[in-house]
Amino acid sequence: MTYENKDDTGVLFKNKDKEEGDNRPDYTGTLVQNGQERRLAAWLKKSKKGTPYMSIQVSDFRNAADGIKAGLGGSGSPRQSDATPADEFEDDIPFIDMRGEW
């Protein structure tokens, strides 16, 4: 059975891609507000007095046209259907084909 968020509820999961020292959230998930699914991110922090807390951010999912795949764990690359066909690129920029040279 698949879990589905109800309005004004959300879930957070530990970010498996988080590495020591990077800016990625420690937890990611989804939240439903007014029937719209939104992205939820949380970072573990400590106050000046050393008290641990979570800093939370709620944002809209960005789509592939923005360069980020919608949903959690997006690859950062647009879907194939959103990619620009190769024949639409300008050929005015000189590039050297380095395939096979490495």
Find the count of extended strands (DSSP E, 2+ residues).
4
Helix residue percentage: under 10%
Order of helices and strands: EEEE
What proportion strand?
Answer: 25-35%
How far is the N terminus from the C terminus? 49 Å
Shape: globular
Largest sheet: 4 strands, antiparallel
Mean pLDDT: 74
How does the helix and strand content classify structurally? mainly beta
Q: List low-confidence stretches.
A: 67-84
Strand order of the largest sheet: 1-2-3-4
Radius of gyration: 20 Å
Q: Helical region count?
A: 0
Provide a quick synopsis of the model.
The protein is mostly beta strands.
Structure in words:
The chain has 102 residues and is mainly beta. The protein has a domain of 71 residues. It contains no helices and four strands. About 18% of the residues have low confidence. A four-stranded antiparallel sheet has the order 1-2-3-4, with no helix packed on it. The protein is 0% helix and 31% strand.
What's the layout of helices and strands?
Layout: E1 9-14, E2 27-33, E3 36-46, E4 52-59
Antiparallel strand pairs: 1-2, 2-3, 3-4
Name some characteristics of this structure.
102 residues; mainly beta; 4-stranded antiparallel β-sheet
